[in-house]
Amino acid sequence: MLQYGTDEEVNQNKDVKEDKPFIAFFRGLTVDPNICRFFFRSAQDVYVAHGPDARMLALELHHTDSILRYWGKKATEPAAKKAKVDSAAPGPALEYLSFRAKGEFETVLHYALFRKQLKLEIWTSKAGKWTLDIEGTPGNPGRLADFLPKAEELSQANIVMAVHLGTRGVKSIGVAFADTGRRQLQYLQFVDNEQYSDFQSLLVQLGVRECLLSPTAAAAPKIVSILERCLISINRRKAAEFKAANVEGDLSKLLRDAGEAVKRSGIMELELAKASLAAVISFFELTGDDSNRAQYVVDEYRLAHYMRLDAAAADALNLVPSNQSAGIANGSIYGLLNHCRTAMGSRRLMQWLRQPLLDIKEINVRLDLVEAFLEDNQFRKDVRDVNGIGRMPDIDKLLNRVLKRNASIEDMYKLWCVVRDLGGLLDCLQRYAGSDAKQQLVSLCFTAPVEKWIEELSIFSTMIQEALDIELCEQSEFVMRHTFDETLTNLRAKKDELRDQLLRHKEKVVDHLGAKRDGSITHGFQAKQGFYLTGNAKSIGALLKAKGSKYTQWKGSGLKFSDKVIDDLNVEYLEVHAEYGKFPAATFGSLLHNA
User: Fold this and answer.
1) Sign of CA dihedral 558, 563, 569, 573
2) Among 38, 79, 247, 407, which one has the highest count of C-beta atoms within 10 angstroms of its own C-beta?
3) What is the pTM of this model?
């Protein structure tokens, strides 16, 4: 009989076995309304929130606390029902709310991190002892980003700004901010008016997600009010983090051209900005990570270079999506204009909208480039449709992983694909046949940089081709080339044999279903699942009537399914695949170092 598969039902707070030692541990944790904690229960593959966090999430996400479950006897006295939400010990019972690790937890994390703007902590149990495993904030999500692959907020720049105020009566403000994805540090020191208008403009121009406040800044009600009105997460830091004594030494480790860069930046003369930069470096622990050495640039931000808009003006213009318009494609000017094919393009568009130019020469250059694409329809179409552009990954994120040396083989393959496809992009750019002035402009802004990238990355491309098994990578099996070792060669031969068996079986399935050999039945591979077949719309009718098949889920291209033969092949193939993946760890580490 055909085995039907359906999506998992929405989890209505799965029961979790009471853990009395954990209750004592949890009640001993420091209570902080700005922190939301989750505890991973591996046995049931769920993340669990307890106490005030569970109650807050129940009310915010489900609009009721009736979904909560309890460990211990639930208190029924009126006093217990009215227990303070900020208390970790509201009564004899400890409430909890559980979320499935797949799908559901992603939604909860996104809400708590970006809508509630809370600091999140994920705790895991190791040998019966609970330890903090992952933590992140709206401006510095860190490893939380791995749980949020589809979050639009993570496709934008994560700007964290430190703010320090002078104490001499004049409203002097020193700020510094970091874009860790682009390895950039910037700073600014200025005197503002009573309404902090320039400070508001700065927040709008940068799209700041989190603000680190020194004690002097946190004590200024107007600063706090502006941040709250702009929906920016506030992070109050200790005065010790704003000590500027070690800034010059830290910069000498972080900057690509340390000595000259520090001299040219001029930051050593700006005490408030220097203190803010010290806080940013401390917050991201930049000097503690060897992968950051000689990777950063630092420069002074030019506030007057762009049109100044305060938060009210930006909201009135609907420049960028707000919490109210989130998920609505045309809910903002950004949503209307964003037809970018890549994440990098979307980030650049967001930056341009937040930072309108004032220099007429720069404005005309930008307009001339737009006109070049607007006037030549074929040129525009060729560039947009060039092989690889639509599939181009988020290069900034991949490079960040490479620099931190935690990139995967799949990441390296994706970067190689980008380099491979640059040749097609260059051919399109070189075919532009506009006016001489526009040809010169296109060459200066696009063609010349692409030519330079191709030349500089040729060694990288060759290295990846020699190290990775490109043939298998193209089939979603991301492994090193088997020629490194005889053991790998034998394993590769076994994989090829099993793959050939699958292809022969696929042809039998096509004939059995009475389908045509025109691609209506295709095969695929996933690292955890193994091989599967996919039937398109033409073959679904026959597939649903077939015996011995089982389907797992709908995909955009059709219906995924398998049968006993495929399942048996997968058992053997995944064993070989896992063995193959273990061997070249040291070799891949060397590859990352060279990259």
Assistant:
1) positive
2) 38
3) 0.75
